[in-house]
Batch of 2 targets.
Target 1
Amino acid sequence: MCIGRRNLDPKTRRFLAFGNLCLAIGLSLPFLGKCYGLRHHGWFDGLSGFLLGISLVFIVYAFRRSRRCSEKQLGGSPQ
């Protein structure tokens, strides 16, 4: 499924951007957690899993919302 980000309304683009940001942070946290040793390992795993879950929710919601955008919201001319 491929959607053009320019064809989305601003609210949907914000959801998609926030989901991608949470995904990037959630995937990078386990690598940052190795620097602190075993002391904070549980916190990094929990926060990483939480951010990955939040990213899934926001990205799926953005894709679902993108199918609801009408031509009037997108700025296209009706044919």
Target 2
Amino acid sequence: MKLIPGLTLLILVMGFAQCNRCPGSRQSPMLGLYEVAAHDTSGRLIFTGAISLMALEQNHVKGRCTIKWEKNAPDNFLDEDGDCEGLIEGQVISIDSAPALDDAGLLFEGQFNDDRITGVWRVESFATSPPLGKFEAVKKK
């Protein structure tokens, strides 16, 4: 009779142990919604928006990026609102705001610092631009 409760307890313990290893059972603190502001090398505000990091598999992150260009922005840039992808290596992150396109997207290269990401931004084209300024993305709670 004691065998059945013992086996039941063993199955439950093994089930909980397996659940802790399931993908998605623990959410990375790096995931979440970040409000972003970017300046050019002169310090002028160039764009604002949001980066929502929604899923992390190993070091590949997927999310959504929304970019609104300001008056100070160079001509011919369109607002963006779509899927974005990137890589996280330790505290370093790189994000492509238009992963489905070979050019015309923004590239963010930064580092996590507590509840924010700071770094440089570039424009992806036939030849990726040098850093065009700095950005800061602050996590919304």
